Every structure is written in structure tokens, then in C-alpha cells.
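LAB NOTEBOOK - FOLDING QUEUE
OPERATOR: T.R.
BATCH SIZE: 2
PURPOSE: Compare the predicted C-alpha cell outputs for two unrelated chains run back to back under identical settings.
PRIORITY: normal
REVIEWER: second-year student, initials M.K.

ITEM 1
FIELD SEQUENCE / FIELD STRUCTURE:
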Amino acid sequence: MNPPPDLQTWSGPSPPGPGVETVDKPQEFERLWRGFMTARVALGLVLVLLKGTIFVLGASADPALMLICAAYFATALAVRLLANPRPLGRTFDSHWIITIGVDILAFAALQVSQSSINYAPLFALPVLMASVLGSLLLAMGVAAGVTLLLFFYA
């Protein structure tokens, strides 16, 4: 019985057995990208439902929070449906802004308003996305920026 093709042994990766197809890097990246974009949409939907429920129950009278969550959900859904999977690269370009920048901006706005919910754990998503989909420089920059945001607004 042959081991799976991605199994690492002490001598290096094992060669694929007969009939086993290897997955190329663009397919893996596209799968990861779609997974992260789907997670953003799901998070946006959860935020809209949470803030909507809080607003309807009368625990919060600030409709701006609901608007922030709805805008985040709409943006995440548009990126998921309309954008093509593409690496984030080394620079802060327009593709970076519509993925990670929107996340940081929305979560920072929610964190500053901070009614009864602490939104700081949400900042893990853009940091994780930058580290998996982007370069090391981008990941370190996003992590440093999020750290500074949390330092000043927490």
C-alpha cells in the first residue's frame, strides 16, 4: 500500500504512487482563496444577524453598527462572487484593499464603537489571510498594523 503523495518522510516527500494525481499549486491556492472568501461572507452574515437581533431587541439604538456590518457583508459577498483568485503580492495594491483592507477597516470601526461585544478576536482573520495568501512582508505589515490598532483602541 502506497502512502499519500503529500506524506513527508525523513528522506523527503514520497513519490506519488500509480494512479495518484498530484495537485498543482494554482489549484491549491484557488481552493485556499475561495475558502477564505467564503469565511468572510459567513462572518459578515453572522455579524449582520447578530447586530440585527440586538437592534430589534432594543439592546442597541445605534443603527451605524448595523450599517457597518451590512456593508462588510455586501463587500465580502461581492469579492467572493466577482473577484478572481490572485495572490496578494508584496505591495498594498487594490486587490489587497478589497480583501484585507476592508476587513481591518470594518473590524476597527466595530472595535471603536464597542458597545457590549469585544470585536478584537475578529482581527485574527485578516492577519491569517495575509500570512496564508500573501508574502511574508505583507503578513508582517498586517500583523504590525493590527497590533497598533489594538494598542491604541483597546
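ITEM 2
FIELD SEQUENCE / FIELD STRUCTURE:
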Amino acid sequence: TAANALDVTLECSDAAGLAAAQALFPVATDNCDTDVTNIVKVPGAYVAGALCPEAGSYTNTWTVTDACSNVSATYTQTITIIDTTAPAWATAPNALDVTLECSDAAGLAAAQSMFPVATDNCDPDVTNIIKTSVGLVNTWTVTDACGNVSAVYTQTITIIDTTAPTWTTAVNA
């Protein structure tokens, strides 16, 4: 097997790809021994990235010994794990939008305290949601541990006035 032929780069959420990469095995030949299938794999531990724990690598190595006890050079496989996928919003678009009567102070306070929920393909803790408010439009973004930034989630609070005025002066006064 050619050097680096078993190297792969996978998204951190690709469990099937990782399992397939870990199952790969190089093939060896020998000038005299026709059966060099006693290849010994030393699986490497996961090494997390310094800034992004969801991204890192595995380094697996193999050696093979022929019938005359000659040991091959070490064959190395590097499995690189990356995270290029931004967090997504679990809260449906427009789910936090509300229309309130202008006199509904409690409803406005409740609407302003709403928050969307985010998920990420690799980072289990995407609670660092940042809210920005301009008038009655609130927006949020969230960043995963690898620096991938979500799309903007928007909430629109609409204030209406459907109540007719009433007279405060007594009738016939």
C-alpha cells in the first residue's frame, strides 16, 4: 500500500467514515515470504486540537514481520478530524415572533425574554448564544468550540393597537 494512501480527513460528525477509516489495513509484500499477513496494528489515541477539541487526529501504525524475522518499516495512517459545520437552530424560524397589543407590558417582557435553542454536529455545548436587539427585532448567533458561526436567528415583535379610545369624561357632565 502506497504511503499516505490510507490517510483521510473527516468531518467530526462522520462516525461511519471514522469507523471505515479505522478498519482500513495496508497490504505488505516480501521478496521471499509469500505470506506476510501477520500485520500488527498499533491504534493511535485521539489527539484533540489545541483550540478546537472536536477537531484533531488519530495516528495508526503497522509493522509486519516475515518468516525470517525481518521487521518492516512502520506504515503510518493519519485520520484528520475537522469541524467545518456551523451550529444550527433547533427553534423553528419565526417560532418566537409575536404580535402584541400595545398595552400588553407583561406580554412584551415575556417576548423579550424568549431565546432560541441551538444544536451542533460535534460541540455538545452551544449555549454561548449572543443576542442583539434593535427596537423590537432581536437577533441571535452562536459559535461552536471550533469557531463556526451559526446563521442569524431573528425574532420580530409586532405591536398593534386594536382597542378604541374610551371617554374619561362622565356622560352629561
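REVIEWER COMMENT (ITEM 2): Residues 165 and 171 are 15 Å apart (CA to CA).
FOLLOW-UP: none requested
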